Amino acid sequence: MAKKYRVTLELAERDELEALLRRGKADVRRLNHARILLKADESKWGSFALRRCGVVP
Fold it and tell me: In whole angstroms, what is the distance from residue 28 CA to residue 22 CA?
């Protein structure tokens, strides 16, 4: 059974992740993780957000 987590980011956390993506000067794995967290936060459909980022749960 897959674990389900609800992602809710504070405004400061969202800003930090968006800044990280804007700079683009980080490890690819870290950038992908930031994209996934942002998509999961803006979408109530967690698995849908993951598929949009290219991650298959």
Answer: 13
